[in-house]
Specification:
By secondary structure, this protein is α+β, with helices and mostly antiparallel strands. It contains six helices and nine strands; from the N terminus they run ββαβαββαβαββααβ.
């Protein structure tokens, strides 16, 4: 509690979410104060969010990610079509039994016939902000290939996973009230 220069009592409240609700409730609780100031602080969760807005306007948030060497299990030899196809098949099978759908950015036939990019990334995205109940929330895992992860802006790199992905077609809807 503090006082303004004119003698009015002021209560300062620190809160991170639902600012208007906090102000309304605070006025009921601290009736004896003429003025209530509410300072918004970002929660740890809000500071950790990496989000992207899709061309449709839907906002999705990154839940997890990982990067891998494409040929990490290759013992010897040079990349060829058969080995590259085995890698792609492995990635398809890896998440088959998972409830989260997986979209793989397919490399061109030329790339599959020769050499896949050096790295692949796996990003798990969710959409649940500002969703109307009839639209539900949705989620999608995306796998994409990249030549380099050196000297690239991290947010841009993760964001490339969503380029060209038809979220409405490949994501799975769920009712968050069922969780």
């Amino acid at each position: 509690m503090s006082q303004k220069s004119d003698g009015q009592k002021v209560e300062k409240i620190m809160e991170g979410r639902e600012l208007q609700t906090v102000i309304t409730v605070a006025k009921m609780i601290f009736e004896e104060f003429e003025d209530i100031e509410v300072e918004e602080i970002q929660s740890i969760y809000d500071r950790q969010i990496i989000s992207s807005v899709l061309p449709t306007g839907r906002e999705v948030e990154l839940q997890s990610f990982s990067f891998h060497l494409t040929y990490e299990n290759m013992i010897e030899g040079e990349p060829d079509r058969e080995g590259n196809q085995q890698i792609l098949d492995f990635l398809k099978r890896k998440f088959e039994k998972d409830e989260v759908p997986t979209y793989i950015h397919q490399p061109s036939e030329h790339v599959i016939n020769n050499e896949l990019p050096l790295f692949y990334g796996i990003a798990y995205w969710k959409c649940y902000k500002k969703m109307e109940p009839e639209k539900w929330s949705s989620e999608l895992r995306v796998i994409w290939f990249m030549e380099s992860v050196d000297q690239i802006n991290f947010r841009e790199l993760i964001g490339t996973s969503l380029l060209g992905v038809d979220w409405e077609k490949y994501s799975v809807r769920y009712d968050p009230r069922d969780l």
